[in-house]
Design goal:
This protein has helices at 2-19, 26-36, 51-58, 60-63, 67-101. By secondary structure, it is mostly helical. The chain is elongated and about 60 Å long.
Length: 102
């Protein structure tokens, strides 16, 4: 199951780069994802905001993704993540209200 999430993360990054028409290959996305996984070792800030971006920017020589592309994709992926969490919250509230109404 862990391998599935690793592959999902790689393809999510690759698709995010493609949405913005960044010239990032699947190999670059794999290296980018691998380096980014190191930020999950220690949570210094909530959601590792800033730490993840710092690590990605400082290691751009390894993965070949430009600073602008890192920041745009990071903002986009975080926004999608927070929107999905908010949607799950709304769905759980709706479910709770329907169960309570019975």
């Amino acid at each position: 199951m862990n391998s599935f999430f690793i592959l999902l993360n790689i393809f999510t990054l690759f698709i995010a780069f493609r949405i913005f028409d960044f010239n990032v290959t699947l190999l670059n996305s794999t290296i980018y994802s691998s380096i980014g996984s190191f930020t999950s070792i220690a949570k210094i800030t909530p959601g590792n905001i800033g730490l993840y971006e710092f690590l990605m920017i400082s290691s751009n020589a390894f993965h070949g993704v430009n600073v602008e592309e890192i920041l745009v994709s990071s903002i986009f992926l975080r926004a999608i993540s927070y929107l999905l969490l908010f949607l799950l919250y709304l769905l759980s509230r709706i479910r709770y209200l329907f169960q309570r109404a019975k």
